[in-house]
Amino acid sequence: RFDNIFTYLVGFLLATIAALAMILGARVLHEKTLKLAEPIWVTFIADTSYGVYLFHWPFYIIFSQLMGNAGAV
Question: Are 33 and 21 in contact (CB under 8 A)?
Fold first, then answer.
């Protein structure tokens, strides 16, 4: 619950530690598989999804002003 002091004192710290563990795990896995190349379709999906992530909010704001919420989504 977000109105509980435990969330702010300990919850965010636990979430940060969990994120750090996942990042370090991914780094170790990457270093152990240096010779393994990603398939081209995985690279394409990753690049495309990152572009959508970067531009979805401005596009949503623009299109929601032009055609309403349902059309923008």
Answer: no
DSSP H or E run through 41:
helix 40-72
Cα-based distances in Å from 18 to 23, 25, 26, 69: 9, 11, 12, 35
Quick: pLDDT tens for 11-25: 889 999 999 999 999
Tell the residue number behind the tokens 């004192």, with chain if given.
Answer: 9
| Terminal-residue alpha carbon distance, the chain | 29
60 with 72: CB under 8 angstroms?
yes
Does the pLDDT at position 31 exceed 80?
yes
- C-alpha Rg value of the chain to the nearest Å: 19
Asked if the model's pLDDT at residue 2 lies above 80, the reply is no
